[in-house]
Design brief:
The protein has 2 helices and 4 strands. It is α+β, with helices and mostly antiparallel strands. It has one domain: Alpha-Beta Plaits (2-Layer Sandwich), CATH 3.30.70.
């Protein structure tokens, strides 16, 4: 699994950081998503897929 984000599309809703905090965080100044790892562990795969699905801006892209 490979994860990429589009920070320009991010609306700082925070769903990703709440769903997969080991993979996503938010910048303190504006809440825009930060990617902590682009190759999350297999144990985090379901959380990452869920985070991508609930992202209101569709700013998270997962490649299997």
């Amino acid at each position: 699994m490979r994860v990429t984000i589009d920070q320009d599309k991010c609306v700082a809703a925070g769903q990703c950081a709440a769903t997969a905090p080991d993979v996503f965080d938010q910048r303190d100044e504006d809440g825009v998503v930060l990617l902590l790892t682009d190759t999350p562990s297999a144990e985090r795969a379901d959380d990452v897929r869920h985070a991508a699905a609930v992202c209101p801006a569709l700013a998270i892209h997962v490649t299997e």
